[in-house]
Each structure stands twice: as C-alpha cells, then as structure tokens.
C-alpha cells in the first residue's frame, strides 16, 4: 500500500499537475476554478488560508477578491509550486506562500487567524485529514467560513480504470471523504452549511 504523502508527491509533480489542470480546462464544460470561487464567500478585506494550494490557481483568485486590505496565506508541500505561485505577476505583497506538510499546519500558520480556510482537492493527501480539518477550523476567526472541495463517488473515470488496473486506496478513500469525514465534522461544528456537487 502506498503512503498518502508519497502518493501526493508522485502524482503531483509540477509538470504532471500542470498537464492535469490543462486537460481539465480543455474538456470541462464548467470552469471548475470559477465554480469553486462561486461556492466560497470571500468578502473584501478577508484573510484567507489556502491549504494544499498547488501552483495557486485558487490562491490568486482569492487574492483578487480580498483586495488590498485582505491577505492570502497559501501552503503546499511542493517547493516548486510555491515558487511558481510567488513568481506569478498577479502575486502581491498580501500573499504569503509556505512550503510544508499540511500535517504541520498548526506550526505553519503559527497562531494566525482567517476569515476563510479553504482546501481544493488536497486535504485527502494528508496522513490524517481529520487533524488538518480541525486545525483549519480552529484557525477561523469568529463567523469564519470553511470550504473543502473533494472528489465524490461514484466516479465514472475511476470505475472505468478499475476494470483494468488496481486503484490506489488514496483515490478510493478520497471518494468517500465527503460523507465519512466532512459531513459529520460540519454537523458537529457548524449551525448550517451547504454541500455543492
């Protein structure tokens, strides 16, 4: 069985990540990146935490929404992704990029508090996603928002591939994370929340 953190590194090398994002953009009928933004309340002046930010597609969009008085604190395990994010011409002084394992999130944010804590297609790579989720929740300012985006099963492509190849457990686990981890967590910690597909 492959360890989650090793799987993340093996499958998210910068070139593979760029290729995957490019393919998604070409074949999608919906602009997924914009859809994520549409599901996330980010008032001007907000401080946003982006966990597992990759090369920063969501971070840069958050940065545009928070304005000059807000900030984005982006974390990813790949130094090359953070380097690319910080070198982006849209990056400004209110963007911080940190390289680190999301299991060390508490130390990486070092007491900072956020209006929005978000993770798009990343939290399931953590050795213990529940710990990361709780740390994100604990980092929220009063009235803050938590946005987690994960795959949902059944997944047609996974089912097709399963006919011919063994599917890594990290992929299968990610498909049930919404119902098994996120919904119970949100039920316990929030008065209300919404689920979007």
Layout of strands and helices, then pairs:
Layout (H helix, E strand, L loop, with lengths): L3 H8 L2 H14 L4 H7 L8 E5 L5 H10 L4 E6 L2 H9 L7 E5 L5 H5 L4 E7 L8 H10 L1 E10 L6 H7 L6 H21 L8
Parallel strand pairs: 1-2, 1-4, 2-3, 4-5
Helix pairs in contact: 7-9
* Share of helix, binned: 40-55%
Run of helices and strands: HHHEHEHEHEHEHH
Provide the residue-averaged pLDDT.
Answer: 85
Separation of the first and last Cα atoms: 30 Å
Overall shape: it is globular
Tally the helices: what do you get? 9
How many E-type strands? 5
For the biggest β-sheet, the strand order reads: 3-2-1-4-5
- Strand-pairing-aware structural class: alpha/beta
Whole-angstrom Rg: 16 Å
Q: How does the major sheet shape up?
A: 5 strands, parallel
User: In percent, how much strand structure appears in the residues?
Assistant: 15-25%
